[in-house]
Amino acid sequence: MAVGRRAEMMEENRNKLIAAARKAFAEKGFAAASMDELTASAGLTRGALYHNFGDKRGLLAAVVAQVDGEMAQRAKEMAGAAEEGWDRLLAEGIAYIKMACEPEVQRIVLLDGPAFLGDPSGWPSQNACFNATSSTVAALIEKGVLKQVDVEAAARLLNGAALNAALWVAAAEQPDITLPKAIEAFVLMAGGLRR
């Protein structure tokens, strides 16, 4: 088999496993999802899972990275109507918090992710969000929109506030009641950075 075709097949198998795991984790949760059922639904073996991800936890990390990356992209798109700068940064944070009410996001990223992968601030997808927020914060400080504050500190606190608000909403008994409270507090807290 040619090297190029083998690489294509490996990528195809990886994508099949991620798709099957995403469906299983969303429906049953990480702990209840069976590796045998998951691999069978992808038409693959446990060996393919181990080869591509090391173990079930490695597969969860890949699924979380995919969903969290999509969340960041969707938040940008949802905030696209907001004016460039501060309004857009705030709108992205609010959009991220609102996604905590979506069952797939809730289960995979906000409940099972932290429970089985640990602190989300160390996830590569969260680091990408942090880097984007840092760039925006630096630009807003330079334009005089934000107070003179350490860029890293402000970016970490903004990202952390949005993430923790989303975690709170996802874990709430009544997310629809918790959501407006979380958004209001996020907006008020973030507003303290404005000049």
From TrEMBL:
PROSITE patterns: HTH_TETR_2. GO terms for molecular function: DNA-binding transcription factor activity; transcription cis-regulatory region binding. It comes from the Bacteria. The keyword DNA-binding applies. Residues 11-71 form the HTH tetR-type domain. The keyword Magnesium does not apply. Residues 34-53 bind DNA. Keywords: DNA-binding. PANTHER family: HTH-TYPE TRANSCRIPTIONAL REGULATOR RUTR (PTHR30055), HTH-TYPE TRANSCRIPTIONAL REGULATOR UIDR (PTHR30055:SF223). This is TetR family transcriptional regulator. It comes from Chimaeribacter californicus.
